[in-house]
Amino acid sequence: MATGVRKCFFFVKENVSSDWKNLAYHLGFGRADIDNISSRNPDSKSCCMDLLEEWQQRKGDRATKEVLVEALTEANLQSVVDGLKMDYTDLQVGLHLGLRQQPATSVKEQYLERILELERTLFTVKVLNDPVRYRKVRKTFNAHKALLKKAVDGSIILLLTFLCQSDVDGFYHNHFRVGEGSLSQQLSDILITDELQKKVKGVQLIVRLHVKHEDYVRVRTRLGQGLHRTTSVDNLRTLPTRSCHLYHSSLRALDLAVVNGEDQACTVGVDGISSLKFTVKEVQAFARAGKGKSQQVRQLEDKLQVMRGQLHTARQETVAVTEEVARLKEKDEKAQKLVSEQKLEIQQLQETNKAAEQDTQALVKRLANEADRVKHEDEKAQKTLQELKLEIQQLKESNLSMKVTIDELQYSKHTAKGQDYGRKMVDPVKMEDPGKMEGPGTMEDTINPIKLQELETDVRKQLCQFSENEPFNVLVLGRPESGKSSFINSMHMAVAHRWYEVARYGDGSRMRAVSTDLVRYEMFRDELMEQPIEGYNHGVFFWDTAGLENCHTEITVTMLGLIMEGRIPPHTIIHEYTDVRKSRSLTVSSLERRFPHSGAMEEWKCHRVVFVCAADEEPSMNLMEAVTDAACKDEADARSLPIFLVMSKCDKVDRDGDAMYKSRRDNAALSLMVYRNNVRCKASGTVQLHIYMWSN
After folding, report:
1. Rg, the chain, Cα only
2. DSSP state of 598
3. Separation of alpha carbons 443 and 352, rounded Å
4. Contacts of 52 (CB under 8 A, 6+ apart)
5. Can you name the residues that pair with 98 across neighbouring β-strands?
6. pTM across the whole model
7. Mind listing the pLDDT tens digit for each residue in 362-395?
8. 166-210: per-residue pLDDT in tens?
9. CA distance 276 to 267
10. Sign of the four-CA dihedral 404, 406, 411, 412
11. Which domains does the chain have, with CATH numbers?
C-alpha cells in the first residue's frame, strides 16, 4: 500500500507547489514540524516532497491514496485531485539494460553486477535530455499507439498514455519481445550508445521493457470506465436536431433511460452509413441487447486478460525455472566431477596410507629394538656414572682434606718463621756488621740473605719494566694516622737516596690538607732522584687514600673493589661512600651504576695492596677483613691481589719483649692472609714474590 501511494508523490509535488503548508496542516502536521521542513529545504517543491516522505514514514501502512486524496480535497486542491485521478490512466514502463545472449554461468554474475552499476551511473533519465534522442523515443512509442507523457527522475521510468483498451492490450502483450523489429530492439538502437557498449566488453547490450501486471490491469480498467457516460432521452430531446450519429464503438456505453414517448422516432447514423430511422423503443431494445452482450464481452475480455497475465507470468516463471534447472544441472555436473576426483584421491591416499602403515610397523619394530638397546646402554651408563660420582666425591673429600692440611702447614710455617725472625731481629745500634748477627748463626745460614746494594740494583732493574701505558699501581690503605704517607715517602727515599715529601701529610681527620681523598702519586721522578734510574719509563704509582673507618660493610667492600679494578678515577672524594653515617642511603647497585664497568681504565688497575698498621694500636680487624674480601674473595678470582702488611711506629713498642706487639702483628698477618700472596700472584698472572728479611 505504501508503495502505491508513493507513485503519486511526484505528481502532487509538481502541482501543489506553494500550497504545501495547507496540505501539511490537513495531513496532521503542526506549526513546529512545518517550520522545520521549511528550514531544511531550498524551495516549495522540495518542501512538498519532504512533507510527503515524512508523512509516509510516520503513518506507515496507514498512508494510503485515499487519505492523501481526502487531505487534498479538504485543502481545496480539487484540481490536483482531478489530475491525480486522471493520472491513473498512465502506464509506468521501466527501461532496464539486459544481455542479448546469455553468457557462461561462471561470468554471468560479473556481467549482471556490471549492468547494475551502469544503470546507477550512466543509464538514467538523463539520456533523454538530448532532444533528438527524445523525439526518436516518442516517435517509436507513437508507432505502437502509446503517447510518451514524461520520464520520471532516477532510473528510466516512462509514463505512457493510451486512448483505448485495445492499444494498451497490444502494447502489454508485445513489450517483452526482443526480436528483430521489436520495440526493445528499436529502443536499444536509440538509447545504447557506443560509449555505453564499451563499458561491457564481450556481450551485446539490449534495452528491456518491464511492466507490472497490476499496473496494466489498473490502466485497462480505468480506460474502460472512462468511456462510459450516462444520459437520458430527455437530454437527447433537447438537442437542436433529432439526428444523432452513434458510432458502433460507443454503442455498448449507451444507457438510455425508459421514458414516455417510446414510439418517437430517432435518426441514427453509424460510421458514415446513411441515416437510419428507429423508434425510441427500438433503440432501447437494441441498446439493452447490446449492453448485455457488451457486459459478456467485457467479462470474457477480463478473463482473457487475466489468463494472458497468468500465461505471461507462467512464461517468466518457466524461463526462470529453466535457467535454475540449467544452473543446478551445471552445478550437479561440477559436483559429480569433484566427487569423482575426490574418490580417486581417496583411493590414492588409501594406497599411500597402506604403504605408510607397513613402513610405520617396520619402523616401530626397529625403534623398539633400538629403544631396548639404548635402555640397556643407559643402565650401564647410569651405573658407570654412579661409580664416577662416588669416585669424584671421594676425590673431593680427599682434596679438601689435603687443602686443609696444606693451609695448616703453611700457616704453621709462617707462624714459626715469624717467631724465628722475631727472635733473630737485632737492634741496628748494636749491629757492627750488617752481614752478621749475634748468636751462633748468621743471616746466610737461615734466610739466604742478599746485600742491600744488590737488592737496590735488582729493584732499579725491575722498575724499568713498567711504563705510563702499562703502569704498576700500589694501593696504600689503613686507619687515620697509621703512617700511610710516611710509608710512601720512605719507599721513595729508599731508592732516591734523597728525602722528598711525595705524599702530603694529613692531620689524621677527615679534613685533609689536600682537596681529595684518593690521590695518585708518580714515584721516582728524575728531578727528585740523587741518581736517576737509567731506562726508567715512569710507570710506578702509589695510590694514597684517606684514613678508613674500622668497619666491614658491603658498601666498604664494594668501594675498595671498584678502586682496585680501576673504575674510580683519581681525585675522587671516597669518604662520602665509606663513611657509615653518609653511606646509609647508598646501595651496592647504585654505587656500581655510579662507577660502571665500562668506565674502568687499565692504567688505574691496582697490582699490589699495602695495609699500614700502627704497632702501638690494636689491629683494625673489621677493616682488614673488608680489604681481604675486596682484594681476593677466592684464589680463582680475577681480582686476586697480593696484600702486604707494614707495621709502622715500631719505635713506640718493644719488638723483642712486647708480647702484645707480636700478637697484634700475627693477628694482622692472619687477617690479611699474607701467607697466601704467592698463590694470589699465580692466580692474577703476576710474577712470584721473593720476600727478604734483614735486621733493621
Report:
1. 64
2. G
3. 97
4. 9, 12, 13
5. 206
6. 0.38
7. 999 999 999 999 999 999 999 999 999 888 988 8
8. 888 888 888 888 888 888 888 888 888 888 888 877 778 888 888
9. 6
10. positive
11. 2-76 (1.10.533.10), 87-223 (no CATH), 227-282 (no CATH), 450-684 (3.40.50)
